Amino acid sequence: MRDNIVIKELKSSTTQEKAFKTLVEKYKERLYWHIRRIVLDHDDADDVLQNTFIKVYRNIQSFKEDSAIYTWMYRIATNEALSFLQKRAKFYDTTSQELQQKMIENIKADEYFDGDEIQLKLQEAISTLPEKQRIVFNMKYFEELKYEDMSAILETSVGALKASYHHAVKKIEMQLTKL
Question: Keyword rRNA processing on this protein (predicted)?
Answer without folding.
Answer: no
